[in-house]
Fold these 3 entries.
Entry 1:
Amino acid sequence: MTASTGQICPISGVWKVVGYPTTTAPIAKGNRMPPYCGKAVTWQLIMQA
């Protein structure tokens, strides 16, 4: 499952930025997906909470 910066998080869990540089972040359902390094990115769910 993926979500882009600005979208509402569909599932609580640990999300990872697709591409490089990458990072992981815990994001709760209902929160907006954040930017990374000041840019809009695509996040991929790697572990559901």
Note: Residues 2-48 form one domain.
Entry 2:
Amino acid sequence: MLINRIRLVLRLMGDKRVPVTLKLLPIGAVAYAFWPVDLLPDMVPGLGQLDDLGVVLAGLEAFIALCPAAVVAEHVAAIEGGRRARSPEENVVDGEWRVKS
């Protein structure tokens, strides 16, 4: 499940329908893990790393929740179905009608 959530975030980060300013949320959440100033110092065994993990996971979940629901649903369906999500422009069928003689 965690792998699918990460895949969803990566797909949403690459989707042009998600606002650029919203894409700063997961970047900031991951950057927090490497920032030297923490809520709980990393020198506290276990707890220091747990607050980093909690902030990253909360940031990723907030990003998913704030993304347009239709876009999220499209990517979730694509991940669960194992196929690439298509943009609305790609759903057009282009072809010719031919009559056999």
Note: The mean pLDDT is 82.
Entry 3:
Amino acid sequence: MNEERYAFRVRQALNHGLKDIPPAASRRLEAARHLALSRQKLAAPQLLLAGPANTFSRSGNPTAYLKQILAILALLLGMWISFYWHSAQYVADLEEVDSALLTDDLPPDAFLDNEFFEWLLDDSSED
């Protein structure tokens, strides 16, 4: 609200000073105003596709483009390292299960038998 009051006072002061300006100066000011308004560029909305080519052409700075490429490469490298680490963990878990099965007293065929699983379920329910 304070800004509106200030703008109103400035407008009043400028309008009050209009009387003191000579007519020739007033005409020159008006012509300069029209010239400035005619030279003013209107911002036209532009549709741009997202991508490195548009980013490079707008910024005009090749280091910004290089930084974006390096960031994408770092992200892809991180994703690859994460995938490799998780797959290595999965293989290690499978190795652990396989070694436990091979060193167990039961033959591996017993785990494939459906009656064995039923016997395990029945035996555990009695406890």
Note: Residues 1-40 form one domain.
